[in-house]
Write a structure and sequence with these properties.
By secondary structure, the chain is α/β, with parallel strands linked by helices. Helices cover 37% and strands 25% of the residues. The strands form two sheets. It has a nine-stranded mixed sheet. Strands 3-2-1-4-5-6 form a six-stranded parallel sheet, with helices on both faces. Helix 2 links the parallel strand 2 and strand 3. Helix 1 packs across helix 9 and helix 5 runs antiparallel to helix 10.
């Protein structure tokens, strides 16, 4: 079965990553929705998409479409996902799923009621680097995990700034854009859930309208693991990394918080250092392959909608922690 897709949002991420991944895993992109008809037509022509539409109703009522990929601004996700699910379309939605937990739960409920697959596009858990780290921890290579550190402070290029730095109503700011990825990747690698977070945010000159453009904080997990994170839009030269430290060893990963299939993972123990063997699978192709399989009744998406609710809950708790100056419990309501 060829899964036929409609894009809801003529986005950069779809153009750069998701359209290619859909096609590489046997799917077909048949339409794109943009609220700007001219932009939609141009986008369709540039990306080899047969047609463009300018309304949500047109997008989800199309009988040729089996699934939709939602990559609009965050405040639009809820209504678009619910409309798609009610129209019988499977849904892959960008993170954060919504701006409130109630909205995210409403999306999940609509998917369950309609019997469609709903997933979150958390790409980092699909990286061979993070999968190798998870496998090493599960195999006991570092003993009992005690702590972790995530360095995900990058420079947001001008063509991606826009609403991310100047629209609070769209869920702009670094926490709902990047910290949610940290939360999901930590959950995946550790096989554990965060329960509490403390944080301090910064306005370093890129963020506008009171939006934070950097944040540092610490999460506590159910097992007692504590994880430090540093996220930013303003950091040009830092590089990214992910470390997990245990009673018998450490995993040191570099250049891994990225959309590209790159990076290294070093296992450091009493026996010395070992470079873990890694593949170079495209992260989005792995996500789309799992999504297509889930539609066929074989397994589940790599990041479910419940995973997206967990990361949203963590992001919202981080926002509250930074605002209030106190530790905040993470309560996804699942």
């Amino acid at each position: 079965m060829t899964v036929k897709w409609g894009l809801i949002g003529a986005s950069t991420i779809a153009k750069e990553w998701v359209i290619g991944a859909i096609r590489a895993t046997g799917g077909e992109v048949v339409s794109v929705m943009s609220s700007n008809p001219e932009r939609g037509r141009t986008y369709a022509e540039e990306n080899g998409i047969a047609r463009s539409v300018s309304s949500l109703e047109e997008a989800v009522s199309d009988p040729d479409i089996d699934a939709v990929y939602i990559s609009t601004t965050n405040e639009l996700h809820r209504d678009q996902a619910i409309a798609a699910a009610r129209a019988g379309k499977h849904v892959l939605c960008e993170k954060p799923l919504a701006l409130t937990l109630d909205d995210a739960h409403a999306m999940a409920a609509a998917g369950r009621e309609a019997g469609v697959v709903m997933a979150t596009n958390h790409h980092l858990r699909n990286a061979d680097t993070h999968r190798a780290m998870r496998a090493a921890i599960e195999a006991g290579k570092i003993g009992r995990a005690l702590s972790a550190r995530v360095f995900h402070a990058v420079y947001l290029p001008p063509h991606l700034q826009g609403w991310r730095i100047d629209k609070p109503q769209s869920g702009g700011g670094v926490i709902l854009d990047i910290t949610v990825h940290d939360a999901d990747t930590l959950r995946f690698v550790l096989g554990d859930d965060p329960v509490e977070v403390s944080a301090m945010s910064q306005e370093g000159g890129m963020g506008k309208e009171g939006l934070e453009d950097a944040v540092m904080g610490v999460m506590r997990f159910r097992s007692g693991v504590i994880a430090q994170f540093h996220d930013g839009f303003t950091t040009k030269f830092a590089g990214t990394g992910f470390e997990v430290h245990g009673t018998e060893g450490s995993l040191i990963a570099r250049d891994v918080m990225t959309q590209r299939a790159v990076g290294t993972v070093t296992l450091r123990t009493a026996d010395g250092e070992e470079q873990l063997q890694l593949g170079n699978r495209n992260l989005y192709e792995r996500a789309l392959e799992a999504f297509h399989a889930a539609i066929a009744g074989k397994g589940q998406p790599s990041a479910t909608i419940e995973d997206g609710i967990w990361s949203l809950a963590t992001g919202l708790a981080t926002l509250e922690a930074a605002r209030s100056g106190r530790a905040v419990k993470i309560e996804p309501g699942l």
